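Usage example:
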Amino acid sequence: MANETHALNERAQLLLKTLVERYIADGQPVGSRALSKFSGLDLSPASIRNVMADLEDMGFITSPHTSAGRIPTPRGYRFFVDTLLTVKPLDRVEINQLEGQLQVENTQKLVASASHVLSEITRFAGVVVTPRRSAGFRHIEFLRLAEKRLLLILVTAEGDVQNRIIQTEKAYTPSELIEAANMLNQNFAGCTFEEIRRRIQSELKQLREDMSQLMAAALAAGDQAVSDSAEDVVISGEINLLGINDLSSNMSKLRDLFNLFEHRATLLQLLDVSSRAQGVQIFIGGEAGLTPLDECSVVTAPYEVDGKIVGTVGVIGPTRMAYERVIPIVDITAKLLSSALTQR
Amino acid sequence: MANETHALNERAQLLLKTLVERYIADGQPVGSRALSKFSGLDLSPASIRNVMADLEDMGFITSPHTSAGRIPTPRGYRFFVDTLLTVKPLDRVEINQLEGQLQVENTQKLVASASHVLSEITRFAGVVVTPRRSAGFRHIEFLRLAEKRLLLILVTAEGDVQNRIIQTEKAYTPSELIEAANMLNQNFAGCTFEEIRRRIQSELKQLREDMSQLMAAALAAGDQAVSDSAEDVVISGEINLLGINDLSSNMSKLRDLFNLFEHRATLLQLLDVSSRAQGVQIFIGGEAGLTPLDECSVVTAPYEVDGKIVGTVGVIGPTRMAYERVIPIVDITAKLLSSALTQR
DNA sequence: TGCCAGCACTCTCTGCGTCAGAGCGCCAAT
DNA sequence: ATTGGCGCTCTGACGCAGAGAGTGCTGGCA
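Running the assembly step on the lines above writes:
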């Protein structure tokens, strides 16, 4: 007895499990009759009602109103995913399919396609935190577009390419441009932009005056690269959530949710948490502390480059989602992303 | 009499105008009493009812049901925007504000920010068709990332920068890379990729074998650049439309609308039409032939580079929108975009 | 001829009451 | 411990009446 208030006996667990499964499957509150049919146990609805009452007391399930069946509470979902859920790993076929849809041309495309694939395959919103990169300098190029217009191409240590068009006051000759680029490439390759800034500052007097605008532009582009490469969140398939009945019923909540999506910083904070732990993490309902996510769950997994965690992939969907399907998908996607990034 | 069935007399026009204005303002069907108060004419509701009946016969207005006021039909809106609407040009201040929010660093950012600004300022969805560019070759660079990994940087004639990481079979020396780049830069600058492909093919035998992989990669990147630079539609602020009562009432229509947004090709077709004409164009309701846009209007304006139309900007919002505000905004945005693009 | 007050009519919207259906809790019997 | 049975409660659908809004029409007036 005292036992039952803390731990669930096997029967209660089985019933909770089938209840959650049925609710996830058809979204209707589950009554004692249905449970008696589907649990596999040979119990009458009346007996089941007793157990259900206990489960309700313990806070695992609740009824929307007196004469409806029961639905899982967040706590019920939590227990379900933590100890009752049996995930079946993906088929080799599905993995290949997933892998085939990742576009490996460059990091941005890779991240974008990962997010897109997640949303396509789960039909929820896919989300990826872009890898954080320490912005070092590798290579620069000035390309003459017109008399006083240059295209500046900047490659960071991580192989990201930044480009911007700059208007110059003076018309540089091709050889001057090459000279400036060489000067930067030879002296500063491998440095951070902060270092470059310091060293240029101190050597400014020696610097030929007509070079200084080019240097300034280069540094500005560098700063841009740093800020661009700050962590960011890529979301796709938000539209899928419009189709989810659980969410689209109360319009104002839905609006809040989409507003959250626009508010990258908040989202980032949530997803960052998940990158502390290894493996798949699940946030159920408001567990993340964000009210717009009340009826949502977030399934995340960190991905890594060379053994170091650099970002997070995930799926945002209704709390009533098929976890046993979503979890392996997110897991594999993180692994695929890791390996695609490590190769480069 | 016969006159009235074709053209509207002044009184009818004024009443239609105030009716549309009032309906746009508060979204409620407008009754004869309200019209008599707000029209400025000194007429009793009863007289106004006669005119309204005529307007209804002519198809400019309709009533949702017997005892409601009248609302404009698409034809009513059409007449309104064509001949009754008085747009007030934007303040200098507003223009500056608009201009300040455009990010001119490079074409992609410019287009994205234009779309974003439109959505922010109108609180509807902003949409921009990216400029079509003939993809010519300008410059290429091979950068060694690791032994058998190169970063390929490709600059098109229009100054767009493509980059991709390639794995090579052979470990190239820096001087080989420079040689390959030089070879391409000197011989093919200004050519289309099609030309390059032909000429390389014909000279393939003379080409040192170890260079061919680099050439192939360069051409592949070029093709990518061509296809990437194909026209595309950038949408932002779709979420704003969630908040519009006219649209969010019937969920399924809203879904259709968002599906349309995902279906770039269809949207492109619609927006391309608008780039045939000069100046602001307005599509009301389903005039564009797309059912998901039934309750929407699209306000567009083409923008140009060096006097040649290269794309379209626009706003998608509910048919019940404040046209007199949206029209100048779209107009000015197109002009700002034109001038920003022409400068580069 | 144009305008308008008045009136009957129609339609929506709201609230109320009823009724069937679903499901529960409790209790007594096994 | 399990279970059949009974009464209770709540929802959702339905129908109905009354209020409110706005129209169309008619007949009178300048």
